[in-house]
Amino acid sequence: xxxxxxxxxxxxxxxxxxxxxxxxxxxxxxxxxxxxxxxxxxxxxxxxxxxxxxxxxxxxxxxxxxxxxxxxxxxxxxxxxxxxxxxxxxxxxxxxxxxxxxxxxxxxxxxxxxxxxxxxxxxxxxxxxxxxxxxxxxxxxxxxxxxxxxxxxxxxxxxxxxxxxxxxxxxxxxxxxxxxxxxxxxxxxxxxxxxxxxxxxxxxxxxxxxxxxxxxxxxxxxxxxxxxxxxxxxxxxxxxxxxxxxxxxxxxxxxxxxxxxxxxxxxxxxxxxxxxxxxxxxxxxxxxxxxxxxxxxxxxxxxxxxxxxxxxxxxxxxxxxxxxxxxxxxxxxxxxxxxxxxxxxxxxxxxxxxxxxxxxxxxxxxxxxxxxxxxxxxxxxxxxxxxxxxxxxxxxxxxxxxxxxxxxxxxxxxxxxxxxxxxxxxxxxxxxxxxxxxxxxxxxxxxxxxxxxxxxxxxxxxxxxxxxxxxxxxxxxxxxxxxxxxxxxxxxxxxxxxxxxxxxxxxxxxxxxxxxxxxxxxxxxxxxxxxxxxxxxxxxxxxxxxxxxxxxxxxxxxxxxxxxxxxxxxxxxxxxxxxxxxxxxxxxxxxxxxxxxxxxxxxxxxxxxxxxxxxxxxxxxxxxxxxxxxxxxxxxxxxxxxxxxxxxxxxxxxxxxxxxxxxxxxxxxxxxxxxxxxxxxxxxxxxxxxxxxxxxxxxxxxxxxxxxxxxxxxxxxxxxxxxxxxxxxxxx
Length: 732
Fold this sequence. Notes:
This protein has helices at 2-29, 34-50, 52-60, 63-73, 77-93, 95-101, 104-115, 121-135, 139-147, 150-160, 172-192, 198-204, 208-217, 221-235, 239-247, 250-264, 269-286, 293-297, 301-309, 316-330, 334-342, 345-355, 359-371, 373-381, 392-401, 406-460, 463-477, 483-488, 492-501, 504-512, 516-542, 568-584, 598-601, 611-618, 624-646, 657-660, 681-694, 698-704, 713-725. With 732 residues, the chain is an all-alpha fold.
């Protein structure tokens, strides 16, 4: 099945290559037929769009350069348009083709097309499309579009393509002009952004006054969206361009447009969506310098944004943009902070913070609350203690207009109290977490010290080790009565953290320096400990201690190898069992047996992949971890047996290529020869015609003419050389 699919893919690739070669030949031999050339170019575009490898192959056979020269030299406008359209599609599909076309020569040709008055609108639009593709995500293209003067021509088109503010898109000519203008806007956007280009941003900033005029005189979505994208990308992360935009009144114009769209948003849904687009542009202008927010206070933009935030049609991403803009407006502007407070914005931010599950929204709302914390404290104390730095007269006017400012003070106190309460709760949680970490670390140090003495005594032998064992186990069991431990272990994650940090097996491994076998046994025992602890804890909560763990019976008496009592690993295992029993012992829970399955305790044996599997299969009581290992191994072996039954000739190890290539060799080891096929007269004619048209490109000749099946390019080359050596043979 897989072989047939591969053969189909190979066949499709071969057909694609043949089609591209024939289409390229058609372009070369149909220079007088503009319609045929246009159809061939459109077909090449379609093939390259369907197959990503087609663009690369078309470049390899020289088609890309031929189409480029055709766009420059053709006398027919339709051929130029089709050639530019094909170049743009191929460059957009393959980055190598983009780099091949990204030359100053091509940019100069495109600039000439755009500046020539004889070029029609569609030809200019195709030229702009090629520039867009070459500059997109390409710093080299951004540099060339500036150095060749192409960006200046694009800026001139931005100003002159649309001459009237009354945009009637139902008119065909106006609609074509609008499409060209929209393409110019998109191209200017990629010239300044992704990657960001400061020099191009400086050049494009000269278009800000013209863009402001369009925003004021034509508030249609078809105009506002492209211009806002152009403005936002041109001034993004560039303080100098942002200052220039504000100096020419750009922020005032955006504020006026936003106020108008917010008032219209109560009637139409599209106005609300469009207002969010303008909001993002405003945010891009003030994000790097919050002091620019003073300009927005004249238009009460904060209150307008809060009203827009309550619109039901907005999604979480649009609400995040609005709240982030409010945060930048109030970051360093007391006028906007007071506007937020007076518009009941703080309770709205707290509501977003408490009700929303979106992390980005919560961060933005916290940013706004943090900005307004100082002004909230001032208003909560007294109106007399609160004053703007240079706006005391304005505050008096507000005092005269607002008769009931005490309500605002009460709200401010409540909001401040809630903010402080949230901060206090966060600090308490942080202190408790630090206390818990300190307690666990001190407990871990005590256990390690205990194990050091235990291991030293066990290596010395004698009854002293037994006494030490009893005394140390008594100390470990004394932790059971500690109240902090019982409280800290109520959470599953905390229990896992405690067992990881206070694991005596790891301490014993660090101090005693056992060999690799002990290291493997440590990891196995550590995992079993986590499983037993988790099972015991869950059943303690549910008040049912039946079937917690499959407890293995003691090892049979006929076992040949038994571990000595003084083995450090056995002692550590006993300590682990005592510690777990001390942590989780209860009247409702049954005591866990200290024995484990054979796979867990077989440490002293020299284990390998064969005897370990037999050991696990012979054990009637397996832990869950080793049970999974046994089941997986049995499943794999059963599947392997089935495959052996179905196909007796299965290879588990690689062989040499000549031994696997059964098709090309006979049982005697002699290679098969291809069946000899003499060249017919038709094939000879094909061969001479192909050489006449294509030269010594034997693969192209083989693909272009219907030779017999099994014929190769080498056969054609040998046949042609034999024919040309004969003195009587003359090419037809």
